[in-house]
Design goal:
heterodimer, A: alpha+beta, Arc Repressor Mutant, subunit A, five-stranded antiparallel beta sheet, globular, B: FAD/NAD(P)-binding domain, FAD/NAD(P)-binding domain, Immunoglobulin-like, seven-stranded mixed beta sheet, five-stranded parallel beta sheet, 8 helices, 20% helix
């Protein structure tokens, strides 16, 4: 680890990672600081994974602007990086006249923002498109540009891409203080000081604390929790498009969707969390999610739930994304308060931020050679029989299926550990390969994944963690 | 690569092993046994406690001993098997696509198939236990593998949720390996496992069994720090005010087994929503002709001996089919699990021969003391058997004679005498 960088990015969520990737095309030294052991361990790893059409936000807001731009960039970006993305379209369904008025407002918002592919359709037409929708649905707003993406894979692919282009990904490093000024910031971390000319604050739910450390705590973030239920892939395909209920002041409402990996996902609710670390799920919240989702589709089966989780929205008191250079502390840039539609907006925020930084540093020069991503990458599960046969012939580890539920092979698990910014934990392997994400939730593959991690990282099994340090799996051996 | 086989058996646990041995002994010389792990034996490998083999070998064996008796026969008989081999798809035409590191991808075209894939454990997510998401929550079977195969301790102090047999056996196992077991919680008012296990695994080790209790909250950031348990009412809902915090760094779940029928569904086999296994006739043939099922992939058994016995029956049926001795039934009879009966296996009787004695396995849906099981057909009682006690945890069977069945439907019921 060097101690001196042109640019330090704080936070390796999807926003920080995409900014790091974009800036890695230029001839500058960059570090990406992450308090966790891996990327995508905050909100970027626990959200709906939706690419929104962009009609929700108030016209003229940063949310509207970056959402629409980002959604346009998403398909190409995912192709470059080999990230699963699907243009599914979405429906906001109305159950009564009040709802119809709400979706009319959304439609008008969208038209004001020149969003293509919006249409108000009848309840019958909606059910024709999505037979699982309830008969009580009177009208719906269809948006053709909406889609689904794997948020954590997008996040991790961006970090890997950045690292391949020379960015230092510094994990398990907590920022504790920021001193100095533009051109000579000193970042105090849990691993010592790091000097940087420019700082980009992408610290997610902690971005207000980081901004305050830098001397410009002009905004405050409230963690608002959303809880989800994820169902077996056998239920995926119940709906093809993302099904929203009309938004309220609490959020975009409970949705029903098939994730890009083929599971059925319902949620989230919205409640102020107890703290910035509070990702506990609650029986009443999960009940609420299920009951509310049933209003859209009656055919949801609680018995098919394979896991539940919660994520935190970083809701700013400014009412909009906070993007740009601090007025009080030049050289310190914020990409903060990135709540929904943050994932959809992230590609455009990265592009915009790269422009701001380049301008601030007097014009950055592109590297002679750099990568924009590893390109299309097929998982074993998605290969044709011929491709599978060939893959095993070239590397027999492809013939060793480790995760039975998701058909993840030993070759893929090894690759996920060895890659740039590779996995170091069981959850890291899971997010990169889906091993353990299936219906048995790791019951079968956990022992094998632990063995492979210990072998590849050259550590003992007792030192293999689920996630951050302290999340050990074994307390010791039965015999010494 | 394409390979033709008379009989392919998927899974080499007790069901697959017993089926392979029986089929080979009955003259099928190209039986192929496919196993996804690196050794034959399935879950028996990690079941180092005794209690296996009492019915078949008339002695108490450990799981590995029980398996090794069959494995020896597999090797003596020269039965072909493939290890590290994962079946990735199967179709209605009995084309089985499998991969392994040595042979690559192979499509086996089988005349008959015996499904013996076993089951998996229900995980935390399926129970929707709220709380945080720390390390330290394992299914009992995974913990059993860690302790018995890998020699690793998955924690120091445990609470076990669910009194299924694996949970009970793991309670004893953890105690023997120097870990502490605070309690076994069971949501139902009666235990889920066999009575002998309650005595031998809990009572003998002073481990409390908390009936009508469940886990309502998980605590801990990185590693489990404790759980909140609560009493449940008759509707199995937690009773407010009965919460208790239990400090532990390990939560083991023994909350049910789910037959692994993803391949079966892919092949178009009709699944019984209650058992989670295929709907079969008395020959254990599924809705797809030539595909048979046995063992825990068909329905979850309490004793391995019964699994092996069932597997031999499946093998016998498959062999008859391969040898062309299969006949068309005169009629098909539907068995309905009526009041007091959770499920039956088979669910269908194919009527071939009036003298055929048909064995029907069943589980009661509740605990019933001093009870009676009846079979009726067209409103007429054709069979009655008295039981001192029926409990869902213990599988029972009855035998009826084909000629007694006059209609196309029979109903099995259980009630208190």
């Amino acid at each position: 680890m060097k101690k001196q960088y042109d640019i330090a990015i704080i936070g390796a969520g999807v926003v920080g990672a995409l900014i790091a990737r974009r800036l890695s095309f230029y001839d500058v030294s960059i570090c990406l600081l992450e308090r966790h052991i891996d990327a995508a361990m905050g909100a970027s790893g626990a959200n709906s994974g939706i690419v929104h059409a962009g009609y929700d936000a108030e016209p003229g807001s940063l949310k509207a602007r970056f959402n629409i731009l980002g959604t346009g960039m998403m398909p190409g970006l995912c192709r470059q990086m080999g990230v699963p993305y699907k243009n599914t379209g979405s429906l906001v369904v109305a159950f009564d006249e009040d709802d119809e008025a709400r979706i009319d407002d959304l439609y008008k918002n969208g038209i004001a923002e020149n969003i293509e592919g919006l249409e108000i359709i009848s309840g019958e037409k909606a059910r024709e498109m999505e037979p699982a929708l309830n008969p009580g649905i009177t009208k719906a707003l269809f948006a053709s540009t909406a889609g689904v993406v794997s948020p954590y894979k997008l996040n991790i692919a961006a970090v890997e891409n950045a690292v391949a282009n020379g960015v230092d990904f510094i994990r398990e490093t907590n920022v504790e203080g920021i001193n100095g000024a533009r051109g000579g910031f000193i970042i105090q971390t849990s691993r010592g000081n790091i000097n940087a000319g420019t700082i980009i604050n992408c610290a997610g739910i902690y971005a207000d604390d980081i901004a305050a450390m830098a001397g410009d705590g002009f905004f405050h973030l409230t963690p608002r929790k959303g809880e989800y239920l994820l169902m077996d892939r056998s239920e995926g395909g119940l709906v093809e498009r993302v099904i929203f209920q009309p938004p309220s002041d609490k959020g975009k409402g409970v949705l029903v969707m098939t994730t890009v990996d083929g599971n059925l996902l319902i949620g989230p609710d919205a409640n102020v969390a107890d703290s910035k670390e509070d990702i506990e799920t609650h029986a009443d919240s999960l009940d609420y999610v299920y009951r509310t989702a049933l209003r859209s589709c009656g055919g949801l089966k609680l018995g098919k739930v394979i896991t539940s989780f919660a994520g935190l929205r970083a809701t700013p008191d400014t009412g909009d994304f906070i993007i740009g250079e601090s007025i009080k502390v030049p050289g310190f840039f914020n990409a903060a308060g990135i709540e929904s539609p943050g994932l959809s907006s992230a590609p455009a925020i990265a592009e915009h931020m790269a422009g701001l930084i380049s301008e601030s540093l007097g014009g950055l020069v592109e590297k002679k050679e750099y990568s924009k991503g590893k390109g299309n990458h097929d998982f074993f599960r998605d290969m044709t029989l011929e491709e599978k046969e060939k893959a095993i012939r070239e590397n027999p580890d492809y013939g060793q299926v480790v995760c039975r539920c998701e058909n993840v092979t030993k070759a893929e698990i090894i690759e996920s550990i060895k890659g740039p910014a590779g996995a170091r934990t069981v959850d890291g392997v899971k997010r990169r390969t889906r091993a353990g994400m299936g219906r048995c939730q790791g019951g079968f593959c956990l022992p094998a994944v632990i063995d492979i991690l210990a072998g590849e990282l050259g550590i003992s099994k007792e030192d293999v963690m689920k996630g951050d340090p302290g999340s050990y799996i074994f307390a010791g051996r039965t015999r010494e | 690569m394409i390979e033709n086989r008379s009989l392919v058996i998927i899974g080499s646990g007790p069901a697959g092993l017993a089926a392979a041995v029986r089929a080979r002994k009955s003259g099928i010389d190209d039986v192929l046994l496919l196993e996804r792990e690196d050794q034959l034996g399935g879950i028996l490998k990690q079941c180092i406690h005794t209690g296996f083999g009492v019915k078949i070998f008339k002695e108490e064996l450990t799981g590995p001993e029980f398996a090794s008796r069959y494995i020896r026969k597999v090797k003596e008989l020269g039965i072909d098997y493939r290890l590290d081999t994962m079946v990735i798809s199967m179709d209605e035409g009995k084309n089985i696509t499998a991969v392994n590191p040595r042979d690559g991808l192979v499509v086996y075209k089988a005349e008959c198939v015996i499904l013996a894939m076993g089951c998996r454990e229900r995980a935390r997510g399926a129970l929707r236990i709220p709380g945080t998401n720390p390390s330290g929550i394992f299914t009992a079977g995974t913990a059993q593998k860690f302790v018995n195969i890998e020699g690793m301790k998955p924690g120091k102090t445990a609470l076990i949720l669910g009194s299924g047999d694996i949970g009970l056996i793991m309670a004893r196992r953890l105690a023997l390996e120097g870990m502490k077991v605070k309690a076994v919680c069971e949501i139902m008012p009666y235990p889920g496992g066999l009575e002998r296990n309650i005595i031998q695994c809990l009572e003998d080790f002073d481990i409390p069994l908390r009936l009508s209790h469940t886990v309502v909250r998980i605590h801990g950031g990185h590693r489990l720090e404790g759980v909140t348990i609560a009493r449940v009412d008759e509707l199995l809902k937690p009773v407010p005010g009965t919460e208790e915090y239990v400090k532990c760094d390990m939560l083991l779940l023994s909350v049910g087994l789910i037959p692994e029928n993803e391949l079966s569904r892919e092949a178009g086999i009709i699944i019984d929503p209650v058992t989670g296994g295929a709907i079969v006739n008395q020959n254990l043939e599924t809705s797809v002709e030539g595909i048979f099922a046995c063992g825990n992939v068909l329905h979850v058994h309490d004793l391995v001996d019964y699994v092996a016995i069932e597997a031999e029956r499946a093998a016998k049926s498959a062999v008859e089919k391969i040898k062309g001795k299969g006949k068309d039934p005169k009629k098909r009879i539907q068995i309905t699990a009526g009041n007091g009966i959770r499920y039956t296996v088979p669910q269908i009787i194919d009527y071939y021969d009036e003298n055929e004695k048909i064995k029907i396995y069943f589980r009661s849906s509740d605990k019933l003391d001093e009870s009676r099981v009846t079979v009726t057909c067209k409103g007429k009682n054709i069979y009655t058997k008295k039981y001192k006690r029926l409990i869902p945890a213990e599988m029972e069977y009855i035998k009826i004679t084909a000629s007694d069945i006059k209609g196309r439907k029979v109903i099995i019921e259980a009630e208190k005498r």
